[in-house]
DNA sequence: GAAAGGCGCTCTGTATACATAGGTGCGATA
DNA sequence: TATCGCACCTATGTATACAGAGCGCCTTTC
């Protein structure tokens, strides 16, 4: 594995899991020293993370871990709803039914997984498989690229949400509706169900943000 | 100006104006030599152009100027319609009316500009001002970023189209409809008019592609 | 004559040294 | 005491040297 990939993955991971918090200032030399690499791969990692929007250049002082304010999260979902609804519409038209039938069967037993907190990881893994299947069925490189661009920010935002069992069970139902629409090839239903799911998802995150005493944004 | 910016702008310009054609293989050393720079800034330029999708890594052999096939153009517009329709919808809700009233007045006299081929540049400049005004009114960083991501590819695609006067005059009319909808704050009309405009635009480009004997794609 | 293996070239990947700019802090002067 | 200016320090920006890997061509052998 290339050193620049190591640096990228390491920094990205730390940003996504809030180890490196918004507002933290990073410099090339400091990170090169910490990660035991030279400045060159760090530089490349900074460039990639800046392109993704996780870092913002701070002229003369380095880069800063980007902000994730309430307003930013709203803007993020504003676009996410548009992109993923459209994606669901296209997937419903282009999918291989067998793949999504299998996923439907898995989602049928999902509520059982959510009874015990221990099995949550399995549920999250299932959702990831659904995402992967949709990516594969999408067949539109540009739309996929646009969705991928949002994912790191969504990962960061999701960390803010307190996923209680009630919300997760509801989410499982919403996913089921989407998967069934895709199986049926009902593109409009798939799009609408996705839109509804994401808006509820946003609401859940914003609820968590609003009831958290801790200030999330540290710089702007 | 930084050397890496120079390299980026130079290569980007050449790709967009088809001086560097799809399928052309570039290596760091070769370009460093040609542009009289060291490998470092070239490397950075390659990375940025790869992130934009104008270059594709060719493991062990350098990078290659990305393909722009008929299919790619269709996928490009598939996403563009979604993004720019949504943008028009939001702009109609968030715009400063004065700005777009002024633009409307300019578009009123646009057909006159298109009578002489010499004045086309003025018309193109007007369209650019409209885009800039919409970007500013949009107030959604993520949506704007997604649209910006498409622009270089659109610039390249547009080079393929043969814009005859008839098409340009029609386009001016379509733009006028969009601007008026924005002035009126009619978000649905703005979105629909944008969708129609872009679909006609795509048709025009595809017509040109289909009637061109020259093969556009050189690699895949 | 064809196929396989080895040698060599050229590519990227990384480290490091040097240049340069901008910002901060301290000191001097008004 | 406050403000202006200079110097130093630390940051990025750039060049370059070196290492490692992959591909192609050439040679040799069957």
Automatic annotation (TrEMBL), chains A, B:
UniProt keyword annotations, A-Z: DNA-binding, Transcription, Transcription regulation
UniProt domain HTH gntR-type: residue ranges: 1-68
Record InterPro entries: GntR_C, TF_FadR/GntR_C, Tscrpt_reg_HTH_GntR, WH-like_DNA-bd_sf, WH_DNA-bd_sf
Pfam families per record: FCD, GntR
CDD domains recorded: WHTH_GntR (cd07377)
Name of the protein: GntR family transcriptional regulator
